[in-house]
Prior knowledge:
mainly alpha
Amino acid sequence: EIGSGLVGSEMCIRDRYKTTWREKLGYGIGAVGLDLSYGMFYSYLSYYLSSVLGLKEGFLLLLTPLARIWDGINDPMMGTIVDRTRTKWGKCRPYLIIFPAIIGVVTVLAFLNGNYATATSNTQKVLIVAWAAVSYIAWGMCFTVCDIPLWGITSLMTEDEDDRSKLLGLARIVAGIGGVGVLVVQIAQVVAEIFVNKGYSQAKASQYGFILTVIIMTVIATVLFEFAGIGTRERVEQAEKKYTFTENFKIMFQN
């Protein structure tokens, strides 16, 4: 009987460190929201800047590697910041609660740029190029702030490896739903016809179609992503060891 009591106690303790179905659902929905934002922004880089705003291919070829270089610095830096975060909400949840709205605003602002193809002065063109570069890098930084805590929180939600694997597997599966974000191009083209019928030029109609579509899809993505923060709980005690920026940088390149 004593043995049975000990086994029962161990099972109760172990169950306390497992996630509930509500947490799994919240985490999965949050992953959909973040991937939806990623899909939209991929369309921004691959289509919107060149085909709608008329930016030159040379600029895009230069911007992408420069942004990747910055990501190589930004990723371990953000990893260090998250690792050192200590709040009443936990280590990762504060970022998953606060940053959905921030990345949503940055996403919309990126699409509110001027049109390079119809710009009438060099000053306008320079400002449009600068807006595109800054918004692209800013969005990448915000995505990192969201992405690292999203995948890192699983180790704080449960100590059970099988439970954690199920969480990660679920997130990877349902995140594919967020891939519909790349359809923003097709949806925006349909919406653009509304503006064409109202008498707008094709250039203006294309841009307004994108902006309206992105605003609607971003609101949806932001609400979904918020579930990753409000629908989860950090129940595993945080490790005392804190990694430095240099250590995180080395870990990133070892992986």
